[in-house]
Amino acid sequence: VQLVESGGGLVQPGGFLRLSCAASGFPFSTYAMSWYRQAPGKERELVARINSAGNITYYPDSLRGPVKGRFTISRDNVHNTVYLQMNSLKPEDTAVYYCANSAGRGQGTQVTVSS
């Protein structure tokens, strides 16, 4: 299982980023995929999940308020890639973002929201 995230970086509050996760080494279209994040000094938390077909998404109750309408998970089963579109970014979104499935996770990509 290989998961490689990209698209992170430094962005000003109110800005946007689109994270990508390129997958290989397993039958991508048969696995649900997730994005997690871990901020400094905090535990890793689930941000979003998408089913294998890409037609059902889940955002945890704990984050529905903070991320509702701002984050969108999607996937492309032809190109074995899962995305996280993040809009109206806030400083509290600063974290390392990981994609993962039941078989493993990537190394993460740093997202820093700061003016």
List keywords for this structure.
115 residues; mainly beta; 7-stranded mixed beta sheet; 4-stranded antiparallel beta sheet; 1 helix; 11 strands
Task: Report on this structure.
The mean pLDDT is 94. By secondary structure, this protein is mainly β. It contains one helix and eleven strands, in the order E-E-E-E-E-E-H-E-E-E-E-E. The strands form two sheets. Strands 2, 4, 5, 6, 9, 10 and 11 form a seven-stranded mixed β-sheet that branches. A four-stranded antiparallel β-sheet has the order 1-3-8-7, with no helix packed on it.
Please outline the helices and strands:
Layout: E1 2-6, E2 9-11, E3 17-24, E4 33-38, E5 45-50, E6 57-58, H1 61-67, E7 71-76, E8 81-86, E9 95-101, E10 104-105, E11 109-113
